[in-house]
Amino acid sequence: MRSGTHPVSRPVVFRDRAAGFQLLTLSTLDAQRTVEWEDGATYPVVDVDISSASHPFYTGTSRVADTAGRVERFERRYGRTAAVRP
């Protein structure tokens, strides 16, 4: 195989600060900041907004939207649709 065609894969820590969750995995991302991991080594760190520790689908904490209110608001704004033609 030709050298230099694939990106370099290295250990990187992905950190979700909102959930206090960190994951050490291999990635091709390069980060400027570093963090010391549990084994004492220093790894590049990438901060993410949402991870499996904070996403509602994985945590089971979903919010129920008020769909009845949304339908009524839509009908007030745009009126009722025309009757379906046979």
Please characterize this protein's 3D structure.
Belongs to the bacterial ribosomal protein bL31 family. Type B subfamily. One of its GO terms (molecular function) is structural constituent of ribosome. Keywords: Ribonucleoprotein, Ribosomal protein. The structure is a single chain. Strands 2-1-4-3 form a four-stranded mixed beta sheet, with no helix packed on it. Helix content is 19%, strand content 27%. It has helices at 56-59, 67-78; strands spanning 10-16, 21-27, 34-36, 42-47. It is of the alpha+beta class and 86 residues long. It has one domain. The chain has two helices and four strands; from the N terminus they run ββββαα. The mean pLDDT is 83.
Radius of gyration: 24 Å
- In DSSP terms (H or I, runs of 4 or more residues), the helix count works out at 2
Enumerate the spans where pLDDT stays under 50 for 5 or more consecutive residues: none
Strand order, sheet with most strands = 2-1-4-3
Instruction: Determine the oligomeric state from the structure.
Output: single chain
The backbone outline, from C-alpha atoms, is elongated
β-strand amount? 25-35%
Number of structurally distinct domains: 1
Order of helices and strands: EEEEHH
Structural class: alpha+beta
Mean pLDDT: 83
Distance between the termini: 66 Å
β-strand number: 4
For the biggest sheet, the summary is:
4 strands, mixed
Percent range for helical residues? 10-25%
